[in-house]
Amino acid sequence: MVTTWRRALLGAVMLTAAGASAEPPPSNSAQGTQLHGTGRFESINIPLATVEVPEPPAGVTCAPAKALTLNGRVITAQGCSGGNPPVAARFLEGHSLVNTTFQAPFEGRTVKLVIAEARCHEDITPPTAECTPENLYAGKARWEYRVTASTEDKRPEPLCPTGSGFAIPVPHAWSAGGDLIRNPDYFTFACAPKNEGSASQPFFVGGGVIAKCIDWGYPPWATEYPEGQALAYHQLCTRMARADYCGEGRSNTLDGTPISFRGPQAAVAMSPGGRLPKTVGTEGYALEAIWEMSDCGEVRPLCLGKARWDTLSLEATCVNRAVMQPSRMLRSCEEFNVANMGTATMLVSYSLFIDRALVGFKSGETGYVTTTAVTVDLQEHPGGEDVSGYSPDLDGNGVADASSFGALRMEGPLLTPKLPANIRKRMGTLIKPLYRCANSHGRYLLTDTSTCDGASGYSLKMVNGDQGIEGFLYSSVDSDSPGQRRPLKLWKHAQLVGVFATSTQAPAGFVHVRDLGFLPAVGQLPGRDL
């Protein structure tokens, strides 16, 4: 009976999706750093065969339950007998799945997952449809579940510790490196994020990118695309949403970074002459990357946008063109012609980068400048931690300065002074400004006081009408936080008056003045770890 029911439902869904071909509309949302959003349990894949359901009503005897994932749904079925009136079969979904359990391998032992609560999924791209039988069957709605997880030596804890606290059941399994593994015998719970912004300025907190990509219109099952293409687009989307440039399951973005993206048809339509615009929208989303799946099924960016190269801290991952696309990464995305890519399996992303690369430069023995005003020559920059090819652009005109300063070190990411208002408000006193100062002798000072530490001859250096703010640091970091980062420090020369340096490491001949604050970690949620 269960096999017949499974075939009937799957057949109906495939027939429903067979004629679909249009790509999802362009979307504005936010990037994330976790795949599932489950924190401690990110690595688990759940065998459907481990399902155990609540006892049937009195007088009814049922065979062991079988579980099936159907698109974004998990449904159990049992053949039964007895009851008055007689019960021939029992199907559970939604609220009736409360107290259902699954078991999954976890770190050489087992984790027990218990569905504690069910509700209709709150889509992060409203409107949200009600979970009526008609909407569920048509794929317009799905249930989401609050799940607890426990190992043999631990008390139950929330499977989704951040975000909305609820998760969508999603078919197939995932590797530790972020690869989607097609396997109908497994599923995962994908934690949904929570919008702590507004509808017009979303800021999605917590959860994982699997759930985000489903809501954006790129689920790992047939809808707008047939199943094979849908799986490819879901893989593309999850890599894009994490800024996983090297396809290794590691993020290169800060959680909550606003993103705008579109499929190939929309990308071609917005690119007269085949050249993608450098920015989109009134907010100024900058071109981030063109994402494409190779013939071997690997997802790599074809290219990164010039603004992404200039702001990329290179801290979290490999980020080198040898791993990405060596024959193409010598060009920025602005140089690509997308006129003939309307049928490609491709996504184009734009971003409001909320982190910028903070790079240290040195001139002679005592001249230091640490700045986010940089430009990168892709012909000279090999990627990784190598900072050759980076040049200061202290006048902010987008062209490398003619100066004696050579790149010394990538200090890490710094929060941009152009943080979107909703993120700036949310972080409040958890961040503080880092001010840019200079004197008439070509010396520089980066410090946390707008008075330039009272240093003689120094004053705020404004660039393009700004307030002399280089960016924002974390004002403090919880010592127990997994996202704790190294402090940025102010130094002064031991003998020379008025000579300063700002860096994470002590320059030769300089003494420590004080810690200024903490650099954020690529991959962490801004402010949430403080």
Question: Care to give the gist of this entry?
Answer:
By secondary structure, this protein is mainly beta.
Q: What do these coordinates show?
A:
- It contains seven helices and 33 strands.
- With about 525 residues, the chain is mainly beta.
- Strands 1, 17, 18, 19, 20 and 21 form a six-stranded antiparallel sheet that branches. Strands 3, 4, 5 and 6 form a four-stranded antiparallel sheet that branches. Strands 7-8-9-10 form a four-stranded antiparallel sheet, with no helix packed on it.
- α3 crosses α4 (about 225-240).
- The longest helix is centred in the N-terminal third of the chain and has 16 residues, at about 1-15.
- The protein is elongated and about 95 Å long.
List keywords for this structure.
530 residues; disordered N terminus; four-stranded antiparallel beta sheet
Gyration radius from CA atoms, angstroms: 26 Å
Task: Tell me which oligomeric state these chains represent.
Answer: single chain
Beta-strand content bin: 25-35%
Average per-residue pLDDT, rounded, comes to 88
Largest sheet: 6 strands, antiparallel
Please tally the β strands and state the result.
33
What's the helical proportion of residues? 10-25%
Measured between the Cα atoms of the first and last residue, the distance is 54 Å
Unreliable stretches, pLDDT < 50, 5 or more residues?
1-20
Number of H/I helices: 7
Counting helices, strands and paired strands, the structural category is mainly beta
Question: What general outline do the C-alpha atoms trace?
Answer: elongated
